[in-house]
Specification:
The complex is a heterodimer of chains A (293) and B (508).
Chain A (H helix, E strand, L loop, with lengths): L1 H13 L8 H14 L10 H12 L1 H14 L1 E7 L3 E6 L9 H4 L8 H17 L3 H5 L6 E3 H22 L15 H7 L16 H14 L3 E5 L5 E4 L1 H21 L35
Antiparallel strand pairs in A: 1-2, 3-5, 4-5
Helix pairs in contact in A: 2-4, 3-4, 6-8, 6-10, 8-9, 8-10
Chain B lengths: L23 H26 L12 H15 L8 H15 L5 H16 L8 E8 L5 E8 L2 E5 L5 E5 L1 H8 L6 H18 L2 H31 L9 H33 L3 H42 L12 H9 L4 H15 L10 H9 L28 H10 L8 E2 H11 L3 H12 L4 H7 L3 E11 L8 E9 L2 H11 L1
Antiparallel strand pairs in B: 1-2, 3-4, 5-7, 6-7
Classes of the chains: A mainly alpha (293), B mainly alpha (508).
């Protein structure tokens, strides 16, 4: 490996057109991308993976080749580092992208279920990285629990409900236009949990939806399960932070701005405790952050 | 579950043409009343549907059962979790049995479960009811709206179990509101408790003690939430005034309750030990248990309150005095989640779809190799046998017999050495006899004789042998063409088998 570096460096200086790329190099670059496609594999565990990563960092032509292979496959390279390995994610309309139809089979016709699944993913991310500094800090490890995520979204919906009641608006939607219902009502209406015949979680309840989201993220290598209390405790990995920070947050923000909603804050974190904590009904064992109005 | 929407139609004789509807203020009241009416609809629906059940259920008054179910859940839900499903069913059964005493008990239980499940509305996805009502808007247009409500809802309890609670709608419409302000009731409860004890009315004292426990639980919850939030973000919790005030208030509460409860405990123990009435004794014992539980919770709360200060300082060290990051990231809650929730669903769904599409990573698609597929499909299923796998027959080769002396030679030598007990012989004679029989036999005889020089007495003793070959060197030299050494006297000794057996059993 080091010999190759020594040779290629003077060659790269002497021949700016690039050292001749052999099919073996192309094969190595593709192998590196293949390692990146296995999200649960860590470079510390696999020697070949670690070697290829080192080569990527030290050998610019090889790095460019690997990037080109990834782009050709429809993948976006987020970061290449010993911490996260080769973190790749699917580009839009790529073969590797996850469709909502594959993710949740029984989505209802009026899109309510689809929205709930998407909101669950966003809420998991918000609870895992509550402050902007946490999202920006590479060494931060976020922790989420299933019951905590559900309770925290419910609290937010409850505050909106109170505010609507104060202002006296009738928030019941018109019968023939279910899409105009406020988003928080859908989450608030769905029951938090329910008893089933075989004592498993009810799949349509909000804790069931959050649990499904968290399980899917674990399979994708974004979270790791650390325990069973409060419905399941998980911690984040470096890949998840990269994904949320560099891609998902930006995409969602762009959509929101397109809709004409421009949230303006001064950069301080907005997860704050409520002023009067006594009037909230809580789910037992839900340890949660609070939020401002 | 729907209730018919009422249309505001004006009788034709009172108008020439269609008149505009009454103003929005009247419709507000109408909307409220329609919603209240909708809450009673599920109960009437139970009576309407009981005809559809398999079996003859018309003798039961389902609305009555449903109302008592709701009352039971409301009264039984502890303030921190809820009522237990099976307990409610068990308590409903006597009421149902009273309605139709001649029916079997299994049918009563079936009715109870049916009513409770329908109040929860197990059949629908979000486990609630929906009613449609129509009102006139501010501009006179007639709009139909959906009203969603639940009567009994399921909540998760500690340990993953599911409990039942009645919703506010059910309580307001069906039970009648119980408006209790806990703070002032707390003080009232204390006074009540002491008075009740002194007058011997212990059942009511129990209720008052339970309410006091509820307040402590509330404080511990608030404290736990504050500490969790501090761990996430030390600036998020107001440690300058709010939290220290709360801690001080909670410490006062704990100290206060401590004094009261210790006093109560002493008195009640005295009452429990001295009273003659069995019912009073039992209730006093229950009250003692509750008060002891309260004291335990108070101790826990106090230790947590005392830990809170050091925790705050540690978190502050970790968070506030760490190097600040220059890049400001996206505030996922403030920038995305909070603005999203008030939007209508169809617009909010676009944002969540974008987040989902970009935030869930990738899935490697499966591609089939036909060669593998053929193998997988053609592999016959593994048959399971009772006998297990077949053992291969081992291929045995007889080991060659390479011993020096054959079996016949050994038999001949043993015969030669089979001497009568009183006639020992010299080795030279034995060797000469052996040489006459077989040229190789003397060596074997010599070997056996040499071994006999140190006979295995212990073994013979243990195994109960009667004869033992022995050889003694009396100094004569052996005169033999093949062997040299001493000319041993070889003989047989008889062993005292009976004595040995006796010794053995004694020793054992």
């Amino acid at each position: 490996m080091t010999e190759h570096v020594e040779w290629s460096e003077p060659e790269a200086v002497a021949a700016p057109a690039g050292a001749p790329v052999t099919p073996a190099d192309a094969a190595d670059a593709a192998r590196l991308v293949a390692f990146g496609l296995q999200p649960k594999l860590q470079p510390a565990r696999d020697q070949e993976y670690a070697d290829l990563l080192r080569r990527y960092r030290e050998d610019p032509p090889f790095a460019r080749l690997a990037d080109a292979v990834a782009t050709g496959l429809g993948l976006i390279v987020l970061e290449v580092s010993p911490r996260a390995g080769m973190a790749v994610t699917a580009a839009e309309d790529s073969v590797f992208a996850v469709r909502m139809g594959d993710y949740a089979r029984r989505t209802s016709a009026d899109g309510g279920d689809r929205f709930l699944h998407g909101l669950a993913h966003l809420a998991v991310a918000a609870m895992a990285f509550p402050r902007p500094e946490d999202l920006a800090d590479d060494g931060y490890i976020g922790r989420v629990t299933v019951n905590g995520v559900d309770a925290f979204v419910r609290q937010a919906c409850h505050r909106l409900e109170e505010r609507a009641a104060e202002q006296g608006e009738n928030t019941d939607p018109a019968t023939d236009a279910p899409g105009l219902e406020a988003a928080w009502r859908i989450w608030a209406r769905r029951s938090a949990t329910g008893a089933t015949k075989d004592a498993r979680r009810l799949a349509g309840s909000t804790t069931g939806i959050v649990a499904k989201a968290v399980a899917f993220l674990t399979d994708s290598g974004f979270l790791q399960r650390t325990g069973d209390d409060s419905g399941g405790t998980y911690r984040t990995t470096a890949r998840y932070q990269l994904q949320v920070r560099d891609l998902a947050g930006g995409a969602a923000m762009a959509e929101l701005l397109e809709l004409g909603v421009v949230p303006v804050t001064d950069g301080t974190p907005t997860l704050l405790p409520p002023e009067d904590a006594d009037d909230l009904e809580l789910v037992a064992d839900a340890g949660l952050p609070f939020h401002s109005a | 579950m729907t209730s018919p929407a009422s249309t505001d139609s004006v009788p034709p004789q009172l108008s020439a043409g269609p008149r505009p509807a009454p103003g929005p203020a009247a419709d507000e009241g109408l909307a409220r009343r329609l919603r209240a009416l909708a809450c009673t609809a599920p109960l009437h629906d139970l009576d309407a549907r009981k005809a559809n059940l398999a079996g003859e259920y018309s003798v039961y008054g389902m609305a009555e059962v449903a109302l008592s179910a709701i009352d039971l859940v409301t009264l039984n839900m502890d303030f921190d979790t809820g009522a237990d499903h099976d307990q409610i069913v068990a308590r409903l059964i006597p009421r149902i049995a009273a309605q139709a005493p001649r029916r079997p008990a299994a049918e009563h239980e079936r009715v109870a479960r049916w009513v409770l499940e329908n109040l929860i509305n197990v059949g629908s996805v979000d486990r609630g009811f929906r009613a449609v009502y129509g009102v006139f808007g501010a501009d006179g247009t007639y709009v139909r709206r959906d009203y969603d409500f639940k009567l009994i809802e399921e909540v998760p309890g500690p340990g993953g179990t599911v409990y039942l609670r009645t919703t506010d709608e059910a309580v307001n419409v069906l039970v009648g509101a119980l408006d209790t302000d806990v703070t002032s009731a707390q003080i009232a409860a204390e006074v009540k408790l002491e008075v009740l004890i002194s007058r011997g009315r212990l059942a009511d004292a129990q209720l008052a003690a339970e309410q006091a426990r509820y307040r402590t639980v509330q404080y511990s919850e608030t404290l736990r939430r504050a500490l969790e939030a501090t761990r996430r973000n030390v600036r998020a919790v107001d440690w300058l005034s709010t939290v220290p005030d709360m801690i001080a208030e909670a410490l006062d509460h704990v100290a206060d309750r401590y004094r009261h409860e210790n006093a109560i405990l002493t008195n009640i123990r005295k009452a429990r030990d001295e009273t003659e009435d069995a019912e009073h004794k039992r209730r006093a014992a229950e009250l003692v248990d509750i008060v002891k539980d309260c004291i335990r919770r108070h101790t826990q709360l106090q230790s947590r309150l005392l830990e809170a200060g050091p925790l705050f300082r540690a978190e502050q060290d970790r968070q506030a005095f760490a190097t600040p990051t220059s890049a400001s990231g996206t505030d996922l809650y403030g920038h995305l989640l909070a603005p999203l929730l008030p939007l209508p669903v169809e617009r909010a769904a676009r944002v969540t779809d974008a987040f989902f599409a970009h935030g869930t990573g990738l899935r490697t698609p499966v591609s089939v190799r036909v060669a593998d597929l053929v193998d997988i499909l053609l592999t016959p299923p593994v048959e399971r046998e009772h006998l297990g796998a077949e053992m291969p027959e081992p291929d045995l080769i007889a080991t060659p017999d390479d011993s020096r002396f054959s079996e016949e030679q050994l038999a001949a030598a043993t015969e030669l050495l089979d001497l009568p007990a009183d006639a020992p012989r010299r080795l030279s004679g034995l060797l000469a006899d052996a040489r006459r029989r077989d040229p190789e036999l003397p060596y074997l005889v010599a070997l056996l004789a040499v071994h006999a020089a140190s006979p295995p007495v212990g073994t013979a003793y243990r195994q109960g042998e009667r004869r033992l070959l022995f050889a003694v060197d009396d100094g004569t030299e052996l005169d033999d063409p093949e062997f040299g050494g001493a000319d041993l006297v070889v003989g047989t000794a008889l062993l005292d088998a009976a004595g040995m057996a006796a010794d053995r059993t004694e020793a054992a």
